[in-house]
Amino acid sequence: MFKLLSRKLLGEKCKSGLKSLFISAVIGYSMSSIGSIKISGRVLVLTVIFFTGTLVIQTLSSKENARLLRGLFAMPCNEKRTLWEYAAAVGAYVIMTKLSLVAALFAAFSKVTPLRVGLFLLGALYAVFGGMAAFGHFRKRPYISALFVAAGIAMAFLLPEGAAGALILAAADLAAAAVMNFIPLDNFRVRETSAKRTVVHKSGSGMLIPRYVLRYLTENKNYIVSSVITVAFSVFLALNSQKMGLFMGCGMGMALISVNSPMAVIVSSNRGLDRKLNALPSKTRRFFLPYGAALFCFYLISFAVYLAAFCIAGGHAGIRGFITAPVFAAESAAFVAMLENRFTIRNWKTEPDLWHNPRKYILPVLLMLEAAAIFSI
To answer: Is the model's pTM score more than 0.70?
Structure first.
C-alpha cells in the first residue's frame, strides 16, 4: 500500500516530495531576513491542525485515489498494517509537499525553539491521525468526526503554554491514533460516481449555472465544511492580529477567505466540463459571467458570516470593514472567473494538487495588500 500510494502522490523515489522540500527550504531561507513576528503557540497549533487536517481529508476523499485503491480495498490483506501504511503515505504526502512550506514560513518569521518544533510536529500528527479517524467515522458515526474537529479547535484555544501544552497534544495524538487503529479499512473507500451533469445550452436559462454551482457544493459536502472552517480560522486569526495591534486584521481575514479553493476551481476540477466549454461558442457570456455572479453571492455570504462572527467575538470591523466586504466579493468573483476562463488548471494528479495550486494564492496576496492600504488610512 505505502509503495503504491507514495509512488502516485510523491512521484518515483519521492522525487516530487523532495522537490517540494527543497523549494520550501529556499523560500524560507530567502524570507528569513525580512524580520520576525511574535506568533503564539496557540496560533501555531491551530494553523498546523487546520491546514494539515483539511489536506488529509481532501486526500482521503480524492476520487483520483479512489480509482487506484478500488481493487486494493477488495483484496484480502492485513487490515491493520494496510491502514497504517495508508496513513503513512497520506501523512508523508501532506507534510512533505504542503506543510513543509508552512514550516519554512514559520521558521523564517518567528523564533524557532525545541518546544515550538515539538508543537508543530505534534499538531501535524494530530491532524493526520485525527483526520483519518474523522474521515473513517463520518458515514456511520458523524458525531465522532465532529468530536475530533471540536477537540482540535478546543486545543488551539485552550492549550496551555509550555511543556504542559506539548504533553496534552501528545496525549491527543495517542488517543486519535488509538481510535484510527480500530476503524475498518472499508470505511475509507470513496465512491467514484458523482452526478456531474452536462451543461444544457438553452437560451433564457439564467439560473442554470447557479444551480450547477449549488449542486456542486451539495454533492461535495466537505466543500461546505471547508468553507465554514476557513471562516472560523479567519475570525480567529483576525482577532489575534487586532490584539497584537495590527489594524488590518479585519481585512486580512476576508483576504484569507478568498483562498477557498473548491469554488475557485469548479471548471479545472471537472475535465469533462472544461472540454465542453472549450467547444462552446461565447463561453464567457454563456458560462463565466453567470459563474462570476454565483461566485459573488458565495463570497458575499461568506464575508457576511465572517463579519458577524468577528463582531460577536469582540473584533472591531468599523464602517471600512462593511464597505470593503462587497468590494472584495466583486473583485474575488471577477478574478477567479477570469482565471478559470483563461488559465484553467489541467495538469493535476490528485484533488489536493488542484486545490492547492500556486495560482490560488495570487488573489489573497492582492487582497492582503489592498486591505493594508484601506485599513491604514
So the answer is: no
Question: 210-245: buried (b, 16+ CB within 10 Å) or exposed (e) per residue?
Answer: eebbeebbeebebbeebbebbbbbbbbbbbbbbeee
- CA distances to 53, 138, 249 from 86, rounded to whole Å, are 15, 18, 39
Q: At what angle do helices 15-31 and 2-10 cross, to 10 degrees?
A: 50
For 61-108, the pLDDT digits (tens) are: 777 666 667 666 666 677 788 888 888 888 888 888 778 878 887 887
- 3-state SS, one letter per residue, for 325-342: HHHHHHHHHHHHHHHHHH
Question: What distances in angstroms separate CA 297 from CA 234, 329, 335, 368, one per listed residue?
Answer: 19, 8, 14, 21
Is 71 buried (19+), middle (13-18) or exposed (0-12) by CB count in 10 A?
Answer: exposed
Enter the DSSP assignment of 358.
Answer: G
Half-sphere exposure of 289 (CA within 13 A, CB side): 6
20-65, pLDDT tens digit by residue?
777 778 767 766 665 566 677 777 888 888 888 888 887 887 776 6
DSSP 3-state assignment of 306?
helix
Grid cell 491604514 is found at 376
268-272 contact pairs (CB < 8 A, 24+) = 268/340, 268/344, 268/345, 268/346, 268/348, 268/354, 269/351, 269/354, 270/196, 271/346, 272/196
